[in-house]
Specification:
By secondary structure, this protein is α+β, with helices and mostly antiparallel strands. Helices cover 50% and strands 10% of the residues. Strands 1-3-2-4-5 form a 5-stranded mixed β-sheet, with helices on both faces. The longest helix has 24 residues. The N and C termini lie far apart (68 Å).
Amino acid sequence: MKTTETAGSNRLIHEKSPYLRQHADNPVDWFAWGEAAFDKAANEDKPMLVSIGYATCHWCHVMAEESFSDPETARVMNENLVNVKIDREERPDLDQIYITAVSALTGSAGWPLNVFLTPDGKPFYGGTYFPPRQSGGMPSWTEVVRAIGRAWQDPAERKKLLDSAGNVAAVLKQHLHDAQAGTASPGLDEASLEKALDVFSGSYDPVRGGIGKAPKFPMPPVLRFLLFYSRYSGFRSGQTEKGRKALDMALHTLREMAGGGIFDHIGGGFHRYSTDDNWHVPHFEKMLYDNAQLIEVYLEAFEITGEERFARTARQCLEYVRRDMTHPLGGFYSAEDADSRVLDLAGPEDAGQGVSKAEGAYYVWRKAELERVLDAPAAEMMAYHYGVKAQGNAKTDPFGEFAGKNILFDARSIEDTARYFGQTVEETASALQSARERLLAARNQRPRPQLDDKILTEWNALMISALARANRVLEDPSYMAEAEKGIEFLRQYLFSEDGHLYRRWREGQRAIPAMAGDYAFLVQALLDTYDASLNPGYLKQAVDLGGRMLDRFYDPDHGGFFMTAADQDRFLLFRSRDFTDGVVPAAGSVAALNCLRLHRLTGQDRFYDAARGTFDAAAARIRKNPAMAPQLLIALGSDLLGSAEVVIIGRRGEQDTRSLLHRVRKYPRESAQAVVVENASDRRQLLGFMPHVEGMKGFDQGAAAYVCFNRACRDAVGDSDALDKLMQEAMNTQ
């Protein structure tokens, strides 16, 4: 009999995860992951179902509505299984283990992820979405559950399931933990970067940009690698043909993405991915981690090229996060759903409001809607510029969701639009901006997509890094204020009184001990915030937290970083390591670069040894798959390039200090670290981990720069050209 904590709800009603709460009214007797579920499975001798998804997952919603909300399906599940729900964004460690298991069992995996376990947590069967009735050769969900239940009750069949569980667990442990590169084999070198670039070049779309065919994901780590490689190539040997190719690939992709429907031209921000090759028809959910990373990529492209469009795209993403994704206290929400209730602004009765939901309903437009909201000239200009048609403009629409509707994209350049309407570019840009503002006001009257308002340390740290870089590149102090407010939010709400960091905060509750990704991205954010603010307090926090990151997650036996600490969760099959950069880089990739930056500052060998150990641990896998870890290859490249720490003694706001800082910042930030000492307070804060600053003094006539590399600091220089010569020497010294 189903146990309920509240009438009409299951025990998930007491969870804070928005995804788990979405299932609180299911008739399924759901458990959250933990002791209660394992005790029930052991006491009742039942297999476990672990069902993994996230709050903005479209097909998770579909399966929930079709199966988990159905009383008869729930009865079958409750009789045969102990049912566990997991939010993959809260528990990426569990998600990695079980999605790897399902991939090993079936050849592919995704979300919703449904995996069946023995009572001690070993997977033996799984899949993704299952229909409520047999369809297209797929069994129905209830057929699968009944078959698992029958097999578990049959001794001979149970033995097969247990044998499968043992085999899968062994494969998982070898793949996710025990496998090691072997330091006797060749390590990573400059050729590793070139091989990765060759892989990306081979799958690059020269027409529309991006890597591979539809569905197309933005893949910020790949874009960052391409931009880094172009700079790396220039500093190593003068710009090579491959360096120019890398830059062209990145810039073309960024232009195409910013002009496509994957970008929200009315409200700013990028959607999750494009379902077609042209970046036109997106999957409409918006993720904080996508937008935070893309802000940084567009800012870097602006730094390299000076092309204003890149800065404008970054600003629009920043404004979206500021407006729609920021908690009043300073943290950042996780995501917005793809689906929302249907409300046609052009219809007189607003038929369908509150009745049906559709993908992209909040974002798409009928031509008549534009004509209703805007005056005739503005509607005509918007339709011309953004490709709006009476019949709709989605060329790829297999389910007919967008019939008669338009996904705005740059069908024509602003110059072409200006010529067509006989205006200047400036007049046209102003008219389009005014029209977009009116459309945004009208769109705000529609039912909004659901907001996943949980606050994750890892993703917040990504956003803090983006804001810090925006402050430095765009010279807008409001971005630094928001970055510092974000850091203060994490300090106040994600750290416990005894200094332990947690992963998630929602509705006043912090929970889930922080994982390697939380530590790695927060250390990165603190370093990035220091680079922009030059407040030594952030540097001290980065060094302290970086030391804890090593103590809790580094694998001293095999190299690399575990996703979880040893005391994370006694129900984990094992502690896994992740060497693959996905849409978000692996924690170990970010940690390796952090360690190089921290070694440069502190001279502590344990940081450098951890970075090199991570390169060695990943070497064999990267040789087999050169493109698997672009962020880790950035770290490798920064080590190969050489590095320098530059200590500037001077006043932060004065021109002589700013001139020296500007010269340092023309070098790859992965390899050049500037530290400014303005007063005795700065010096005191830095002495704990940079004792060499004690005797450094400025010149009587102005600021002085000390360039430190190869464990020694050169004599102070006071002009940018002399500084540049020393930086060149450092960059060419390994």
